[in-house]
């Protein structure tokens, strides 16, 4: 008896596929309710986001072309590569609306492929963090070592091409101080860039790419570098340059003194200076609000459509006449 | 021992007629002359040790059906794995990931591949192990083997060697192909049941050579030596050529001395034999073909999708590498920050074509996410779990034999949901090969009140139908109900007492001697005597029950004898010349033992279809008692013997309709002189030598068996397996076609057709057969001998029959007309030839049921192939014996009946069930579920990988086609393996559109599978389109939201990691919400797994962010510090998730609202509990939910109801004028 039943499957609701289950049905009620709910939820969110975005004041000024002296206008590249030409360029920006501190100063580059695979890979996280790992440069090709074999700190293309335009802002003859501290992510400063790692052999030979670094300041305090090293996702990107901690009144004009050092002329990239405030949503971002309103609108539209369809062509739920054998009766 | 011994002393050859008689003069038997190849086998009998060395070393009796062994497992299993294109691709990609070309780190390519392959191989190993254990079960069976000293000892089968002398006892299987030396019968014959080999149920006689007859005791084998030279192993079951060299003489051997492995010794207490072919050399194993690896339709279609995706993959890779080459050539030189070119030429503007080529490889690896690496392994895992559910289904567990259902290969589960045609064996599958005496008609009176299973099933169905039938009919029933109620067979009360095997007769008029009070007691007595005397069985006293049991050649005969015993005519003894029957005295009601001298026995052959005995009773009266097929007997009645013909014919028709096997019984009284003169002729014929002996015997018998007087008819129920008619009915309603392929006789097959309701009265039977009469005429006309009629003529004739039949079906107007095709094996050989087979198939497809009888195992396989390839639809073959192995392997799905002794069918099968009736649940419930699960699962898999993979491509376009991915390597690694795979596995394992009860109540739902509603290209491309849409939404919404603005109040802008992480989070949400929308059945497991997938992502993100920055790179503390505090991150998730799922949501709401599928409506009915509120509607719908069917008892009931309605109409049309006339 026991032997015979030894193969008998044991009963459990699981093994018999009889577990209690929630079997929801997308009834018209549910469908309409969910469309309407989404609609009514999304549109206010969209409006909120739009208003937040609306509160952001953003000023941007493209200066790459304007800052090339007239006699170099057709050969911008030779201008930027000529170390003897003065690169300072003065721009004046009108403030349309009051900028409330903190005001963020960004530089924007376009057509710059910081997301290119060759570029992205060319760095060494270990070296940035650990002074003992300065030889860890195998990923940094082609900027890993000097010609005599000494490791470059920080190594790699990203660091080497560090952005080096500088801005000085003043309004009503008074300089606006730009705070360059705290522009990088906190965790980057704390953990990713060592406080005891100092630049070495950086921009010392051959072609000089971008900015040089002060060898006395540890990497964790070189916030421009830290910001730059967070590669952007798209070829058009903005990076934080600094913060202004005083308000700027509306209709003021800001005088900007730009050291136009960075070569974007070779690849035809644009450079912009951007001043922007933020709200809870971040910078100026109308799209979120619009998209929310759009999706919400579509949902409302569909919800209403479903209601109408239901009014004109209702189907009783569980109506057996909709079963296939009733719809196409067997002859 | 004693009774067996006495029984064994009877020389059966003098009892039996045609089959067993050997002319007394030995025919000039010359040893076979053979030389050359094909006849090299040399067996030294009783000297197995000689077969251990090389020239005579033959294979062991060990059999193995496993795919791999310990050594071959690794290479072979790996090879199997890499036969899948996708795996080869991933292997290739894994290799390339070690080079700088790779866009990812090597571990993220190799780890998932190793995981996936390892899991699949582990599954193979487990399945192989099960197969091995099953082999061992057979290999470890014990048999008595001579050990050289004149004694026999038990040894496992696998240790038997060629040359061993073996003693096989009653009801044991032969462990190898044996040469029969002697048996417990003096004349060395034995009975063998070959059901396992060819499906034939009647026993076959084998006989030993006369010269070895003396070897009838264990001790005689001590010095036995002999040599067999014979043919080499071959798969032909019916031939054998060889010589035995024994005592310096050579004797020829033929198939009648050979006992084949896996056939069974019956009615013989033991035999001795020498092993000639062992293990894989044996004929049955030679017949076994390597089990083909089967793949389901869905999987084949899935391959096509993979090819589509590969094309897409190559296409976008080409686009991106072209883009890359152009960018590199034209723009790279100006990108001073890139410092191009590099040494490796990967970014070389001067050699952009080469760089482009390298990049093509990178792209091919990168976009590999379009092809879900975990698809195969997930499907495999799901199928194993599904198989586990099949194995554990208590509703498919057979209490009697203790066998659960078993999915032997799990890769065909979903194919179960797509079956179109079922090809079934008969004996052992539909029937239990047990006959029960159920009814009889004696002297024109019907006896026996119990109904056959078919009648009961139909009655139940009718009762149910009437409840649910539409009003019109209910009304008409009021007037005419009685007529229908009459139709509903009387369902007998629980029978009293213990059931007797072979006897289910119930009628007090005949039992306990009451028959003597009936109208014609003499006729009744005669009837019972025919039952008790006209047979070839041998009684065996059973001490336990204190009664006799009978060893008969066929189960019908056994049933007759049991019936005779129960009626009070107990056959108790048989000697060489007499039969003793203890019978009730007509007048005194006392039991007396009467002796009947058995003068002659005219045996049953399938050609004669009758059997007679000539006996002389105690008064000296000579009687001929005859039983046979009704048509044959009715032809041979004398003029005054037709008294009961009309009544009996009517009863025979009723019995036939009830699915019973019928025989008519008759007798005649012989004058002594008449008998003597006939007997002389008969003896002459019996002892004649030569080929026409049988013809002569037949002719002489024919002379005797005429001018008979009809006594009555018997109806025996060929016991169907439990629940077979109901199961066939349901399967037919589910739209399945059922073909019966049997090795049995045509009559038997037709009877079973009736009892399974595959045939019914009123169905037009198309019998395609070789018309012997036509051939005879033909041969006479052309003065050609009958034997030389060319194949061509026969074929032409068959062709004509086929064409006519097809024509007839085409011209049929009545939609209810049903045709049945019945064809026998010989005809089938022609019909299956290349030029006729399509015609045959056309005809068969046009018929509601198809029965092929007397077909060989090979023909079964051929028919299966014809159906499979001819119709292109899924076929399922079900059988229990070795003769079904061919078709089981050939069909898309092979199902074996387990729990019976022979294991071949099960070993060759994909699924094993204990009873035919479980097929319903296997197909309609598990098949339906598995089909939908797998179909939805695969669609979803492609969807999610497209949705994810294409975002990589779009991002490419923004990185100058450089092959950079926006996601971290780890995200991508986890995507397929952890973050999205579990809910889809839950979908594949647990999804139920409707519950199992509803599947069974609404068999029409099954048609969703064969029609492939859930995996057609429309649906597949729909899902792919959905994937494309989602990828666009996910990518562009995120990009636009995050591209240049500060994403949080701290002013920082989003870098690649932030964008990638946000995008990836959206993907995770989107695909997991999508699957939640796809599912309709949520147990805690689904809830848990979907939730788990999303939470697991956050947990991973937090943990990954906590890793030191060397490992996590830019993802260091990304969630905690950057994303979680940023409202825009959460806003984008909500937006993208809703936007992505919106079209699908709209689609399913629209579909359910305005174009619901059957399961939608049923779900709703269940949801609103309408089935409980409105029982009437529910039963009505479930009775309507069947495919139009012409077979099954429901169809029979329908036909009957239609018939009655017509009658009713006729009646009313006759009535109405009469009503109308007075008015006018």
Automatic annotation (TrEMBL), chain A:
Task: Return the Pfam families for the record.
Answer: CDC50 (PF03381)
Has keyword Cell membrane? no
Record's GO cellular component terms: endoplasmic reticulum; Golgi apparatus; plasma membrane
User: Which sequence ranges are marked TM in the entry?
Assistant: 29-50, 290-312
Q: Enumerate the InterPro entries for this protein.
A: CDC50/LEM3_fam
The record's similarity note reads: Belongs to the CDC50/LEM3 family.
**Record-given protein name:** ALA-interacting subunit
Say which species the protein is native to: Deinandra increscens subsp. villosa
The organism that produces this protein has a lineage beginning with: Eukaryota, Viridiplantae, Streptophyta, Embryophyta, Tracheophyta
Automatic annotation (TrEMBL), chain B:
Family annotation (SUPFAM superfamilies): Calcium ATPase, transduction domain A, Calcium ATPase, transmembrane domain M, HAD-like, Metal cation-transporting ATPase, ATP-binding domain N
Recorded topology in the membrane: Multi-pass membrane protein
Q: What is this protein called?
A: Phospholipid-transporting ATPase
**What's a single GO CC term here?**
plasma membrane
| Localization per record | Membrane
Determine the domain of life of the protein's source.
Answer: Eukaryota
Task: Identify the CDD domains for this entry.
Answer: P-type_ATPase_APLT_Dnf-like
């Amino acid at each position: 008896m026991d032997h015979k039943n030894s193969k008998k499957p044991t009963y459990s609701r699981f093994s018999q596929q009889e577990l209690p289950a929630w079997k929801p049905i997308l009834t018209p009620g549910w469908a309409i309710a969910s469309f309407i709910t989404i609609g009514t939820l999304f549109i206010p969110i969209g409006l909120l986001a739009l208003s937040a975005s609306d509160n952001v004041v953003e000023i941007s000024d493209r200066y790459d072309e304007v800052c090339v002296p007239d006699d170099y206008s057709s050969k911008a590249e030779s201008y930027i590569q000529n170390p003897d030409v003065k690169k300072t360029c003065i721009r004046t920006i009108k403030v349309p609306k009051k900028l409330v501190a903190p005001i963020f100063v960004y530089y924007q580059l376009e057509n710059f492929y910081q997301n290119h695979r060759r570029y992205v890979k060319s760095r060494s996280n270990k070296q940035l963090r650990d002074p003992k790992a300065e030889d860890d440069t195998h990923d940094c090709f082609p900027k890993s070592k000097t010609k005599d074999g000494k490791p470059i700190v920080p190594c790699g293309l990203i660091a080497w091409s560090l952005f080096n335009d500088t801005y000085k802002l003043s309004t009503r003859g008074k300089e606006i101080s730009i705070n360059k501290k705290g522009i990088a992510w906190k965790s980057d400063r704390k953990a990713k860039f060592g406080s005891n790692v100092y630049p070495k052999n950086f921009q010392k030979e051959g072609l000089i790419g971008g900015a040089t670094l002060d060898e006395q300041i540890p990497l964790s305090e070189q916030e421009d570098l830290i910001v730059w090293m967070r590669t952007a996702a798209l070829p058009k990107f903005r990076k934080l340059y600094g913060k202004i901690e005083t308000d700027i009144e509306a209709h003021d004009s800001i005088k900007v003194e730009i050291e136009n050092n960075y070569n974007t002329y070779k690849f035809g990239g644009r450079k912009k200076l951007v001043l922007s405030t933020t709200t809870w949503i971040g910078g100026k971002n109308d799209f979120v609000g619009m998209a929310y309103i759009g999706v919400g609108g579509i949902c409302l539209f569909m919800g209403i459509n479903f209601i109408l369809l239901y009014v004109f062509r209702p189907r009783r739920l569980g109506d057996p006449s909709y079963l296939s054998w009733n719809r196409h009766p067997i002859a | 021992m004693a009774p067996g011994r006495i029984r064994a002393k009877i020389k059966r050859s003098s009892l039996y007629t045609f089959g067993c008689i050997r002319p007394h003069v030995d025919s000039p038997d010359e040893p076979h002359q053979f030389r050359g190849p094909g006849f090299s086998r040399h067996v030294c009998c009783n000297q197995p040790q000689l077969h251990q060395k090389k020239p005579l070393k033959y294979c062991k009796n060990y059999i193995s059906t496993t795919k791999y062994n310990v050594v071959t497992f690794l290479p072979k299993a790996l090879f199997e794995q890499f036969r899948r294109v996708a795996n080869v691709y991933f292997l290739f990609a894994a290799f390339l990931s070690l080079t700088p070309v790779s866009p990812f780190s090597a571990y993220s390519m190799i780890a998932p591949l190793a995981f996936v392959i390892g899991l699949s191989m582990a599954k193979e190993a487990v399945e192989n192990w099960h197969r091995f254990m099953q082999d061992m079960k057979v290999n470890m069976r014990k048999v008595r083997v001579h050990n050289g000293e004149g004694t026999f000892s038990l040894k496992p089968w696998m240790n038997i060697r060629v040359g061993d002398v073996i003693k096989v006892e009653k009801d044991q299987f032969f462990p190898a192909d044996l040469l029969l030396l002697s048996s417990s019968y003096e004349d060395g014959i034995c009975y063998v049941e070959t059901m396992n080999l060819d499906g034939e149920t009647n026993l076959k006689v084998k006989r030993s050579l006369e010269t070895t007859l003396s070897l009838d005791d264990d001790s005689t084998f001590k010095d036995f030596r002999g040599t067999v030279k014979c043919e080499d192993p071959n798969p032909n079951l019916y031939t054998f050529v060889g010589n035995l060299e024994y005592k310096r003489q050579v004797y020829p051997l033929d198939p009648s001395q050979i006992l084949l492995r896996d056939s069974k010794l019956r009615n013989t207490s033991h035999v001795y034999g020498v092993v000639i072919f062992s293990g894989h050399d044996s004929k049955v194993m030679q017949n076994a073909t390597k089990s083909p690896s089967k793949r389901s339709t869905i999987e084949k279609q899935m391959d096509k999708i993979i090819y589509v995706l590969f094309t897409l993959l190559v296409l976008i890779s080409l686009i991106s590498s072209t883009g890359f080459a152009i960018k590199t050539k034209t723009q790279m030189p100006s990108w001073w920050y890139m410092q191009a070119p590099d040494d490796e030429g990967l970014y070389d503007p001067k050699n952009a074509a080469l760089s482009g080529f390298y990049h093509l490889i990178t792209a091919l690896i990168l976009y590999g996410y379009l092809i879900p690496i975990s698809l195969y392994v997930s499907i495999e895992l799901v199928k194993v779990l599904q198989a586990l559910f099949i194995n554990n289904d208590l509703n498919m567990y057979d209490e009697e034999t203790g066998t659960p259902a078993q999915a032997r290969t799990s890769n065909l589960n979903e194919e179960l949901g797509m079956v179109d045609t079922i090809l079934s064996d008969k004996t052992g599958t539909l029937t239990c090969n047990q006959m029960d005496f159920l009814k009889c008609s004696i002297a024109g009176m019907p006896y026996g009140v119990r109904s056959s299973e078919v009648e009961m099933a139909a009655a139940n169905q009718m009762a149910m139908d009437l409840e649910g039938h539409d009003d019109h009919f209910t009304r008409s029933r009021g007037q005419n109900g009685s007529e229908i109620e009459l139709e509903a067979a009387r369902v007998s009360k629980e029978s009293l007492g213990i059931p007797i095997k072979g006897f289910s007769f119930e009628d007090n008029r005949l039992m306990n001697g009451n028959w003597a009070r009936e109208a014609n007691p003499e006729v009744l007595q005669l009837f019972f005597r025919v039952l008790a005397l006209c047979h070839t069985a041998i009684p065996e006293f059973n001490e336990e029950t204190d009664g006799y049991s009978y060893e008969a050649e066929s189960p019908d005969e056994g049933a007759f004898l049991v019936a005779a015993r129960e009626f009070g005519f107990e056959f108790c003894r048989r000697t060489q010349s007499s039969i003793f029957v203890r019978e009730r005295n007509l007048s005194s009601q006392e039991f007396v033992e009467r002796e009947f001298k058995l003068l002659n026995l005219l045996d049953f052959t399938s050609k004669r279809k009758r059997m007679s005995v000539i006996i002389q009773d105690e008064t000296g009266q000579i009687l001929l008692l005859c039983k046979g097929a009704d048509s044959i007997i009715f032809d041979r009645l004398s003029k005054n013997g037709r008294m009961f013909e009309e009544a009996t014919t009517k009863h025979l028709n009723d019995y036939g309709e009830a699915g019973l096997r019928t025989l008519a019984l008759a007798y005649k009284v012989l004058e002594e002189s008449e008998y003597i003169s006939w007997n002389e002729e008969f003896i002459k014929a019996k002892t004649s030598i030569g080929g026409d002996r049988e013809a002569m015997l037949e002719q002489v018998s024919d002379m005797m068996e005429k001018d008979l007087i009809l006594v009555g008819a018997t109806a025996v129920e060929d016991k169907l397996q439990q629940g077979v008619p109901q199961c066939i009915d349901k399967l037919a309603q589910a739209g399945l076609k059922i073909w019966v392929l049997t090795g049995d006789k045509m009559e038997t097959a037709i009877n079973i057709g009736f009892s399974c309701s595959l045939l019914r009265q009123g169905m037009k039977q198309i019998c395609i057969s070789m018309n012997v009469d036509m051939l005879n005429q033909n041969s006479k006309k052309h003065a050609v001998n009958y034997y030389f009629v060319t194949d061509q003529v026969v074929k032409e004739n068959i062709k004509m029959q086929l064409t006519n039949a097809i024509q007839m079906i085409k011209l049929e107007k009545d939609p209810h007309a049903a045709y049945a095709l019945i064809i026998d094996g010989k005809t089938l050989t022609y019909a299956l030839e290349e030029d006729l087979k399509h015609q045959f198939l056309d005809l068969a497809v046009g018929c509601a049921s198809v029965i092929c009888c007397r077909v060989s195992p090979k023909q079964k396989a051929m028919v299966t192939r014809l159906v499979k390839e001819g119709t292109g639809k899924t076929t399922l073959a079900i059988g229990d014996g070795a003769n079904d192995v061919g078709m089981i392997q050939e069909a898309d799905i092979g199902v074996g009946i387990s729990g019976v002794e022979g294991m071949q069918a099960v070993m060759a099968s994909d699924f094993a069930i204990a009873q035919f009736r479980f097929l319903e649940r296997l197909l309609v419930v598990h098949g339906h579920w598995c089909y939908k699960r797998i179909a939805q699962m695969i669609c979803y898999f492609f969807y999610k990988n497209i949705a994810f993979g294409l975002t990589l491509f779009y991002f490419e376009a923004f990185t100058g086609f450089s092959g950079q991915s926006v996601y971290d390597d780890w995200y991508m690694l986890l995507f397929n393996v952890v973050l999205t795979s579990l809910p889809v596995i839950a979908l594949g394992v647990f999804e139920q559109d409707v519950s199992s009860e509803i599947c069974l109540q609404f068999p029409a739902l099954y048609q969703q599978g064969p029609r492939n509603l859930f995996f057609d290209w429309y649906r597949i491309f729909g899902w792919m389109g959905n994937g494309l849409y989602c990828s666009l939404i996910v990518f562009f919404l995120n990009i636009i939201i995050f591209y240049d603005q500060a994403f949080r109040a701290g002013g920082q802008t989003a870098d690649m990691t932030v964008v990638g992480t946000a995008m990836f989070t959206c993907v995770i949400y989107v695909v997991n919400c999508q699957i939640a929308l796809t599912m309709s059945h949520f147990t805690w497991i689904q809830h848990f797994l979907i939730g788990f997938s999303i939470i697991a992502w956050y947990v991973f993100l937090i943990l990954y962010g906590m890793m030191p920055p060397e490992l996590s790179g830019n993802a260091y503390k990304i969630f905690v510090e950057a994303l979680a505090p940023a409202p825009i991150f959460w806003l984008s998730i909500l937006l993208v998730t809703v936007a992505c799922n919106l079209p699908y949501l709209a689609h399913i709401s629209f579909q359910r609202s305005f174009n619901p599928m059957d399961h939608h409506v049923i779900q709703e009915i269940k949801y609103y509990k309408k089935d409980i509120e409105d029982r009437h509607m529910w039963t009505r719908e479930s009775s309507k939910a069947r495919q139009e069917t012409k077979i099954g008892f429901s169809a029979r009931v329908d036909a009957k109801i239609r018939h009655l309605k017509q009658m009713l109409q006729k009646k009313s049309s006759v009535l109405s004028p009469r009503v109308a006339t007075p008015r006018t």
